[in-house]
UniProtKB/TrEMBL annotation:
Gene Ontology biological process terms, A to Z: regulation of DNA-templated transcription
Organism ancestry: Bacteria, Bacillati, Actinomycetota, Actinomycetes, Kitasatosporales
Protein name: HTH luxR-type domain-containing protein
Top-rank taxon: Bacteria
Record-level Gene Ontology MF annotations: DNA binding
InterPro entries: Sig_transdc_resp-reg_C-effctor, WH-like_DNA-bd_sf
Amino acid sequence: MVLATDGMAVGQAVGPLLAGAKYSVSVIVPGALERAKPMLALMGRFAAAAKSGVTVRLLCTPQVLAVPHGILAAVRGGQLGFEVRITDADLHGTVIVDGKAAFGRSGPERDGRYATVNTDLASVRALYLMFAGAWGSAMPVHEHLRLADRLRSDSMRVILERLREGHTDDVAAKKIQISLRTYRRHVAAIMRDVGASSRFQAGVRAVELGLLSHSGSELVD
């Protein structure tokens, strides 16, 4: 058992698993940045596994994606070599290798402070099914970045703010001084892009996807 924030200990625990990987490595980087750092430090090892022919898939939150000199830099530099998807789910850090061994949260404690290697096949299978479910509903990183670029314009930023604040279409259109028809056209496009079923949900989704900050009106870079 190791402290999940201890980068050296995490590396020593996960390293042998990655070295023995033959088919697949499935990674969840935790959303809490303090616990994400040890996982991010393993990016080179994940890339090495991918280069050796192992299928590597990595899930992370928008906040973790934006960590300087991390995943985003590798994606934009074309240096990653494996698939990344973005999720807003609050998941614990996990590394699953070949469906036979996993590194992740230890015991029933919910805060994920400690992690350990698990080779119990039933437990590993349960972790893999959890990963597969989250992976299936997550957004590919390039799609996430394209969406962020589309919604980063000044007009889209203002509309997203109105949506998050819960204004009616009529009030919002008047506030930003555009026609109601134009406003509704923009809203329909935003809802489609972020997969929202309501106007307020579109604003919330923008925050969840890291496209809009929690406290201010600025879109996240």
